[in-house]
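Notes from hallway chat w/ T.B., transcribed later so I don't forget. T.B. wanted the structure written out for a chain they're using in a teaching module, and asked if we could keep both sequence and structure tokens in one place. Agreed to drop them here.
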Amino acid sequence: MTGTITIDTLHGDTLAKAAADAVKAIPPAWPLTATVAVNPFLGQVEDSFDQTAALLARIGGVRLSLPRKHFADKLARGDMTDEDLLAGLKTSSIAKDIDLDEIKAALLSNAPTVAALPTVADLAGRTSDKDWSGIVSDRIGTFAAGFFDQGQALWAASRRNGLYAAWRAFATHDLTPEILGLKDFGTHVADTPETPHAAIERAAVSLGLGAEPGTYFHQLLLTLGGWAQFARHMQFKAEIDGGEDTTALELLAIRLIFEEALYLRHKTNIESEWRNVRKAHVEPVTPGRDTLIDSILQAAAERAAERKLAAVLATPCEIKDVDQRPILQAAFCIDVRSEVLRRSLETMDARIRTLGFAGFFGLGTSHHAFASDTAEHRLPVLLKPSVFSCSAVDDDKGADQKARFGARGIRAWGRFKLAAVSSFAFVEAMGPVYAGKLLRDGLRLTKGNAPDKVKPRFSQDIDLETRAAIAEKVLKAMSLTEGFARFVLICGHGANVVNNPYASALHCGACGGHAGDVNARLLADLINDRAVRDALSEKGIHIPADTIFIAGLHDTTTDGVTLFEADLDSDIAHKDLAQIRKWLTDAGRLTRAKRAERLPRATGKNLTVRARDWSETRPELGLAGCRAFIAAPRSRTAGRSLEGQAFLHDYVWQKDEDFKILELILTAPVVVASWISLQYFGSAVAPSLFGAGNKLLHNVVGGIGVVEGNGGNLRAGLPWQSVHDGENLVHEPLRLTVAVEAPKEAIIDILRRHPQVQALFDNGWVSLVVMGEKGQLAWRYETGGSWENMGSGENETSFQRLAG
């Protein structure tokens, strides 16, 4: 279909850079087996929020804001004020000529709808009256489902020589495009260059792009939805491991080949319009007036939420007797779902304290579950495993073998059910066998996956010095180096649900989309080791001999807590365990009653049943509602209701001599929390682009993700049911407010050494405030490192006085 095309070296280098930049602009998406929240704007962090909003309006056809009626209603209810609107105006450095009157006038009607620039497939579809965009997505999706398959397909696609080579072999025999009207498509594919880089260059020349495609390559990858994001995930993982991966680039080449073929077929009818589209793609991305107004309204809503947070933190609260030794200290994950349970638990007894720390508890472990050879990376996805663990029984090889045989039998049975030779007759022949299972499912008697009964352990020998160093680092990071209680509960969290492809998304993000039981059990066992405690004592951390660390697991769907007392070598008095269990049970009941207020059709009594209901689309709401991250002593938030909307990380800056703990908080937990917050934001304001669609229409593909219906693009992000209750949003999309109690100078020093983290604050993706010596919100960070006094009365020398 095309002749020989000569491409000069400079042209090729420029296109190669443009293609690489387009790939980096796509966020990664993890598979369903270990789903973690990802910032959908990860590739745009170096750009401002306003500029990104303009970009996505151009290439995605979405606005990064709710309809203006949402903000008008907030203003009418008094949830947002004129002062908030004025504060929102101050946040914009480029909306100098917009005033309050114009903002309020804009609230009377919605912003004009936006439409993405058309692709060649869109233009060809208009002129031929055929949905070529949908056809292209379907054909690429059909191929990608087989290529990326992780064990679901009966016949796996060939992965020889990578994705691009495998697709060329597939596409030359795929007659569907030709049957639908794309004549000689197989011949066109056979004539394409053998490398993806050369294919991109040839297509760019055919399409008349020149050396600068502008935002066009980025748009093409966006049209591939979750397939592009999963391919980006492969590259992301490879880069963490020090390698490289070109799968996403190869996917771009495939999409361009479709564009090239459609363009050559319909050139006469679309050339004029396509010329205008090409010009639009290379124009600078500049926010328009409507985009700026939407951004100001968004900032105003966030200032209103910040004002509400400040009022809660300023509420007087009776402080417990800190001189009395606590009987129980419970360390939970900073996950917002833990906040409600922590608050409930603290009401049980004045001798109970709670702490917040990232749920992997500082142990970046690669774990093998009992009778499994699969490595589960139970740590934040930005990190590499530093230790290795397993759940194994050395003296019972028979149990391991039996479990492995059972798992193989289940897999073989599942494949037999779906095999071509048996699938049609299977229902008639074996249907009655499933009567019991159907009855159990219908009566909600199905049980989810329980944690391993076998105690996890480190699978390699770790010397005492290293074990003590790990324990010291974790305890210091938790600000838990003195005042130890009689019992210290290390409590991870997970979600036990049935018939839910997104189950791992409800687990612990800090544990890589797994439950936090393994890390909690490993840490408790490590600190209970007498040799480790002796070594810690030499380092100045004296743990009383009667202090016992216990591991637990908080089930966020039922708010029940499992204690792993069988892991302990020492005996605990039955009455002590019974008391701890009672406290946790009563706290769970209070938490369920509070959580049920937000869930449709839920009561405090039926939440445990909903977790086992195979038809329940909202067994819980995950982290919906998250809007703040607070790093401060627990005394600043204890007794105050934050409505399950805040990540709470314990931090006492006076104990952080070199501010290494503060640096760790700002560069790890804060970044992870921003990913979570922005994923919920993107799934709420732009569900067509960044959401996973309707759970009722989901079909699992390849074991890695879902499609909505029977094919097409993989859907990444959060299902609509995770942010909406059927009538209203359950997650108001607000960018995260990070509140830290620490000297401003220390924060600025850390941000200057970590420009990627500073970009989050400078470019409006997350806001940063400093808490004063009384826990009030005192100073707001402004772009470039300056601070705005929030009118709390806090002055420049407060922290110095406190330190003195």
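Follow-up for T.B.: The longest strand covers residues 487-494. Might be a good example for the class.
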